[in-house]
Automatic annotation (TrEMBL):
Biased composition (Pro residues): 365-379
Name of the protein in its database record: Uncharacterized protein
Keyword Coiled coil: yes
GO cellular component: cilium
Stretches of the chain forming a coiled coil according to its record: 101-157
Keywords from the named record: Coiled coil
Ranges where the record places region Disordered: 1-76, 341-434
Compositional bias per record (Basic and acidic residues), positions renumbered to this chain: 403-420
Amino acid sequence: MGSSVSKSSKKGTSNQYPKQQMKVLAMGQHIVSVQLQQQQQQQQQQHNSAMQQQPASAPPQAQDKKHHQLSDGEIKKRLDRYIETDKAIREWEGKNLPKAVQAKRAQLADINETLKTLEQQYRAACEKVGHYGSDLENQLEEEVDNLLDRKERIGVAKYKWANGRLLLQHACNQLAFAVGRWQTLAQVPMSIQIKYQLATETRNNLIAASQNIMSAKRYLNNIKFPYCETEEMATLDRACSNIYIDMQSPERHQHALQCYSVTHRRCAALLQWFDSVINNTIEKDLAKAKAELGPKQAQLRKERLRLMQEKIGAGGGQLNINDKDLSDEFDDDMLEPELVAVSEPDKVEGESQGLTPGGDGNAPAPTPLPLNELAPPPSQEDLFGNIEQLRKQHEQEMAQIEKTQETNKARMEQGLQEKLRQRRSRRKRMEVAL
């Protein structure tokens, strides 16, 4: 019987409604089934509470069975109610959505009008203030910036080379002391204890001199030293490690003395080379940079005063500024903090009275080399860096950053246009469905 009732219900429903409403009918049946499930859950909860109070109540199947047997009239009423509700919703959307779109358009027009007003006010303010500066000021400012950058680089190079020279000066004094003590060890007969003392002092000063030379190399790491190269310092270190063996025989003592003396002469030549580079290259370039910078700064100040006078007008009085009241924009004595942190040279004193570097017993100073035999100075690029290359590298990096920003902007614009296209496509499909 249940199956016959189901078939007759389906048949009667299919005869009553046309085919184009089958989709709506299926949706209505789904809603009815959902409502029936909700009613069944509520009745089940009520039944459970009643069972707790009255255990001998009727079985739930008899109550649920009633709700499964809905008549055709009840199904028709519920479907009609659903169709009327859906129709009312569509009518409301058809009336109100155009109003919402119109409101958005009005809001957009208001925003555009406000934007135009603000742009006009901005242009009016710019015209009222006018353009500050001139082509001559821009040209002079660029020239002054370039000269200041060059002067700063030369000042930094001078500071580094002066500190490197200080380290080499101490190394030369220590090598002279070591050579003098080593010569004294072989010339004067003395006890074994004094010989070991002299050898120890010689070794300590040789090690300190080697450390000061290597510190100067690290301080000027981009400069290749023509004297006292790394191989020579390695030879000196090996000689220091064998100094107590070399003091035992005259032959080994003489060989070690030759090694120490050669290192002393080459260190003195390196110090002479430092003096030549500082006095003949760095100092001259710094004086030239200062001589070129002064007039350019004066011209720039004069041009800026003229522009300021024009802005103030005739009623503002005359501007007079003395160049003496203006401080230099770059002071050679005020350097970067990291440049001040230079390592102090190693000083090693002797254990006996008067055995200190620079005191009695030092070897005579080597004869200075003629200027034509002295090694050539380093190039301008090694001394001060390639300014043009650094500037080009900075421009390339800025261009790459701008290119990346433009690419990201284009990608975001493309994504936005794609989202707008999808939104328009959905809106068209909704309009067709209505």
